[in-house]
Amino acid sequence: MAAIFLGHVKGPKGDTGAKGETGATGATGATGARGSLWYDGTGITGTSTTPTVFVDSGVTLAAANDQYLNTSTGNVYRCNTPGDASTATWVYVGCIKGVQAEVVNNLTSTSTTKALSANMGKVLNEKIEAMQIYPYAVYPDATDTSYTLEIVIENKTTTITIADDASHTGTYSYTAAGDNATATVTITLGTSIGLPQSGAVVTAIQSSAAQISEVTLYDSDSQEVYNDEPKMWEHINTLEQEIEVGTTITEEYESGGETVTDTYKTSLIKKFIDGVKTATFPITHAKAVWFDKHANKTVHDEISTINASLTELNSYSSEEFVVLNDITSARTYFDGNVNIHKEGYLPIEIEYRSSNSNMTIYTMYISSTNSQWIAYYGIATTDGSTFNHLTFILCVRYKKLLPL
Fold first, then answer.
1. Residue 207 burial by Cβ neighbours in a 10 Å radius (0-12, 13-18, 19+)
2. Do residues 259 and 251 make contact, with C-beta atoms less than 8 angstroms apart?
3. Contact, 284 vs 247, CB < 8 A?
4. Angle at the Cα of 337 (from 335 to 343), degrees rounded to 5?
5. Exposed/middle/buried for 248, CB within 10 Å: 0-12, 13-18, 19+?
6. Rounded to an integer, what distance in angstroms lies between the CA atom of residue 139 and that of residue 146?
7. Cβ proximity of 333 and 379 under 8 Å
8. 316-400 has CATH 2.60.40 classification
């Protein structure tokens, strides 16, 4: 039987119905991973960037990106592989301490960044003291213990040291007496100091405090065999001939309502001690006017001292404080303080530093309490997570205070 299409039984689409009621709340999802934490101690060491297990770290359960501060070395480490102390791995990140200077114990290094040892400072001082700019030393040759030395020195208490070429030494003490400018000391080598020893020759005479102006050596028959008058004394006698005029300086100033002009001469000793040059009066007259003659200090010296003091007063200083807080209960924020007092300095700036990006500081100020400068701070997590241990750095900048 043939089918005949009569029409469609589905009518046109109706209007959207009203929204049904909200269904029941679904089950709570799994707890997310905790944020990174800071630990401290001395169990993690070294500077290796290769992930390494430290069984003595003291961290019972570390998570990736946890931080560890070695409180002895200042080194900071990051957890690479989570786990307990026997499985967690750590890598070196950096150090919050400054670079330690390398000390050089020699006088041959040309380094511009290494420090010189205290021992080399002593060696340098001894070398400087051994430089005889003034004639405190004379070098005769005496081979017989019966020879006699006649030494003319300044009339000052001094110790005369005599040495032979076999490294033997003997000393003779002189005590200043009378009002004369010079004194003559007579020393019989063998009787007075027991030199020279067998097979040796006396080669040096040195005075600790009095300048030597003349040395004469006599043999056993009182015949002169050696005489030396240090060249400095020859130069002093002819000093006027050795001075050349260098230049002049002119100064104008008001005095009694009039302008007064003064002209100062400067000079230079061309030859003083075998070619050593030294100025009699430096270029500026401030260097030629005594401020304290007894202390050998000129007006220029005093001005230099004052300038150095002013420079020091305007100096700044910075220090870093590692802040460690163990908190009794987990929390999302913490308010604390740290003593940043530095005697003689005023804290003027304070900066918060931390490698933990999950922490932020919401308040920080400095206040004086009981004559001590205290830094107050408030720190919170940025995502509302909790913590029970806190480590960060405060960098404080100081200005030196003027003395009262």
1. buried
2. no
3. no
4. 165
5. exposed
6. 18
7. yes
8. yes
Is the preceding peptide bond at 196 cis, omega within 30 degrees of 0? yes
Return d(Cα 96, Cα 321) in angstroms, integer.
10
Q: Would you say 152 and 212 are in contact if contact means Cβ atoms under 8 Å apart?
A: yes
The pLDDT averaged over each successive group of 10 residues in the chain (404 residues) is 63 78 84 86 94 94 92 92 94 83 80 80 67 48 76 89 83 89 87 76 80 84 80 50 52 68 56 41 56 74 77 65 70 86 83 78 84 87 82 80 64
263 contacts: CB under 8 Å, gap ≥ 6: 248, 249, 250, 251
| Pair 193, 146: CB distance under 8 Å | no
Query: In the sheet where 276-281 sits, what is the strand order?
Result: 243-255, 258-273, 276-281
C-alpha 170/C-alpha 189 separation (Å) is: 9
**Which residue intervals of 296-361 are DSSP H helices?**
299-313
φ and ψ at 241, to 5 degrees? -75, -20
Amino acid at 166: A
d(CA 187, CA 218): 10
Give the pLDDT of residue 252: 67
Alpha-carbon gap, residue 386 to 35, rounded angstroms: 9
The one-letter amino acid at 94: G
Q: Where in the chain is the domain with CATH 2.60.40?
A: 316-400
158-164 sheet: strands from edge to edge: 137-138, 202-207, 158-164, 169-174
Q: Which two tokens stand for residue 270?
A: 């061309």
Residue 64 burial (CB count, 10 A): 14
The answer for 221, left when phi > 0, alpha when psi is -120 to 50, beta otherwise, is alpha
